[in-house]
Design brief:
Elements lengths: L1 E6 L3 E17 L1 H8 L1 H21 L3 E6 L2 E6 L8 H18 L10 E16 L5 E5 L1 H11 L5 E5 H5 L10 E7 L3 E8 L5 H13 L2
Parallel strand pairs: 5-7
Antiparallel strand pairs: 1-2, 2-4, 2-5, 3-4, 5-6, 7-9, 8-9
Length: 212
């Protein structure tokens, strides 16, 4: 962590040279909410996000925010972690397991999640006066969000920067795939679990175009 600048007496911006950010989103959330009702959906979110909260403790990462059906965590920011990329991928794999096992037989069994993971520098700072919120910005955050948005249901898409930091201990077999990323063009990414068929590949390609 590097102290970047001081504006006034209390405004401090921090640069985290190398973080791994995990973006998670629930597909079909709005449609499902209309079907089952807001109260049941809030109960589902509470149970699912509480399960993810427990994972943040296990993998020593920082819960950045929840916004509606989105959940974002950051590795190697406030809590130093030399294995941040590997732990982020393990966190994501566990999250995929939770949504597919804990909720597969309930009324939420058709919900799927998308996960995007990006590694790189992040700039952060407290924003506002009343209930000031930590705001993280930069290319790493934007690309992580786009990796999630272009991903398939119940899969994770990770950047090449993240992939290069993984060790053999991860023991996860990724599939290499090119997608269009804003301000990055055609970009090499890696998907887990592997893409099943050509129809799924077509869906992923069209979705990557829609987020640009």
């Amino acid at each position: 962590m590097i102290l970047c600048c001081l504006t006034g007496k209390k405004r401090v911006s921090l640069v985290y040279p190398e973080c791994t950010v995990v973006f998670l989103d629930i597909m079909g959330f709005t449609k499902k909410t209309r079907m089952v009702g807001t109260i049941k959906m809030i109960d589902f979110l509470n149970r699912f996000f509480s399960s993810l909260d427990k994972l943040t403790v296990k993998y020593n990462c920082d819960k950045y925010e929840t916004a509606g059906d989105s959940y974002v965590v950051v590795f190697n920011s406030l809590n130093a972690d030399k294995n941040h990329a590997e732990n982020a991928v393990c966190f994501a794999k566990r999250a995929l397991g939770i949504i597919q096992t804990h909720f597969d037989t309930s009324m939420m069994n058709d919900l799927k999640i998308r996960i995007g993971i990006q590694t790189g520098p992040v700039v952060g700072g407290r924003i506002g006066i009343i209930k000031p919120k930590l705001q993280l910005v930069g290319t790493t955050m934007r690309r992580g969000d786009q990796l999630e948005a272009s991903c398939y249901g119940n899969k994770m898409r990770i950047s090449s920067e993240t992939y290069k930091l993984l060790s053999h201990k991860t023991q996860i077999q990724f599939e290499k795939e090119h997608v269009n990323i804003l301000d990055g063009g055609l970009t090499v990414t890696y998907v887990y679990p592997k893409i099943r068929n050509s129809a799924e590949k077509t869906f992923g390609y069209l979705r990557s175009l829609s987020v640009n």
